[in-house]
Amino acid sequence: MINWLIELVVNSIVVSTILSTIIFSIIYIYKKNKGRHFKHKIVTFIFVFYLIALLYVTVYREGLFMNTTRVINLEPLTILLWSFENLLYVDTRSAYLFLLYNVGGNIIWFIPFGLCINYFIKTTNFIKVLCYSFLLSLAIESVQYLCYVGISDIDDLIFNTIGGCIGYVIYCIIYRKKGEQNVNQKTSEEILESISRREK
Hints:
Largest sheet: 2 strands, parallel
Shape: globular
Strand order of the largest sheet: 1-2
Number of domains: 2
Radius of gyration: 22 Å
């Protein structure tokens, strides 16, 4: 499974780099967006890269229409509980990797979404990010179901949404610290300016 994960990550990076570069070029060269700030271009490129990598890993990882039938699980946390049982009673290493991939992976993959979405949609809040994360995950699971890829699992919806919310919380923490630093810097500048006026 480790070799499969490494191959999956490498392939997703290669494909995402190529496609995001093409899309980025179309957006910022042919659509006359040259006046955009450099930071905006970098964030946009990273976000496009992330979305392509996300779709590759979740939808195209083994090719489309690989299953003979559509597979769906609508019982919450069944796969999670099954993984814990395997972790206790069966092959510990394989069960641990499976648990890490299905739980940790589903959460981690959506953290960047929660981090970046507020950069493009300024009026977001926790509830909106929760809804956006849920809808994106639902879209992915729907495509998996329609294209006979993997298992369309309600657990993925739950953990993806949690990941998006964690990303938004991290964004809020970073933004708050940045705001405090700006306030402190502004206060320091005002104090220095006040001192210089008094000396004059």
